[in-house]
Sequence to fold (433 residues):
Amino acid sequence: MRITTLIPLALAGLTAVVAPAGAQAGKFSPVVIVNDSAVTEYELDQRTRFLTILRAPGDPAAEAEKGLVEDRLRAQAAKAAGITISDQQVASGMAEFAGRANLDAEQFVEAIGEAGVAPETFRDFVKAGLAWREVVRARFGQKIAISEAEIDRAMSVPAQRGAGPRVLLSEILIPASGGSLIEKRDFAEDLAKSIGSEAAFAAAARQHSAAPSRINGGQVGWVPVTNLPPQVRQVIAGMGNGQVSPPVNLGNAIAIVRLRGMEQGGEISPANLTVDYAQVLIPGGHTPGALAEAERIRGEADTCDDLYRVLKGAPGGTILRETRALSQVPGNIAAELAHLDDNEVSTALTSGGSLVFLMLCKRSATLAAGAAPAVADTSAPAVGGPPAIDPTLGFGQGPSRAQVREELVNQRLGALADGWLAELKANAIIRTP
Fold:
């Protein structure tokens, strides 16, 4: 999958779309009627132009008619549910969409205007999507429950988390807490416009970022695209090398990224693997007593976290747990871990006369190459200085469980929404005049 196919948004060659000569007298006559709600010839022409600019797949005219029919059904469902979208929500949605092309809303409207697309067309397109999202969440949101086991599977190597395209990034993460979010957003917008060069971006990261990567001037190394939040993926898909993104709201922080490179990637290579594993040294080597103790621990510990309960009261240092890039793991341990799945155990090794109870906690490909260590800065930030480092921030650490949970919820909602829309369409009266 190419990085440019993550969203169907490209503005290259925008001005090549030629506006037709004067408007036709019948441009507001209906071309299709959906439950007594008309789609006009003007709307169809506008949506066709808009999809052409976005380089959406398929035939633009056919997809435009299909989209407008579905938008009517979505709007009718939202009205029936009593859901309305405020002007502020629409403005935010337009800004978010425009940000995928590395433009602000005003620049985006100006750009599509050159191809004859009215601002209202863009606004209606965004509003319909926002209304549908709200009505779907209201209808299905409380029915979706994501288990911890599902999150584990989604973050695993077998699920190919970490495979595919990779991007080389620098990042600035401005924490959303403390102070006015609007002021921080305004500051981030001004900052993003002033740090086009690599040196300027690095200096800004050291001064303003709360991510551990600020010690490296914001550089986080190669990051699998699947490990990025969806809103960041969308923005990066519209960027070129050396470009700086507009601010991206992540909820707990405002992100600005600089794209330094991209590669197609593919299957997960051993060089990109990270292993979380635990060792317990049991005196006696491969003696019956030591092997019996290993079996006892194995029987009571289903996960690495269980070891702390099973061995409660043991001397400090009894459990050695580490997270390392696979290339940094000692060869004999790496060879054993290669045969294990998550939470499986090996007792094949000995060390200094002790039996090594070796447990693989997790094998993942979610850390960026060269990611700064997630060490918290516990000192109070100096007045006017950089904020305290927050080890939970930054794309080099991989996706959080909360992010993956949200992705899974959105996937479920998307499937339910598609099924419901198909049902609405099947039950609708759709006719041409």
About this structure: The radius of gyration is 27 Å.
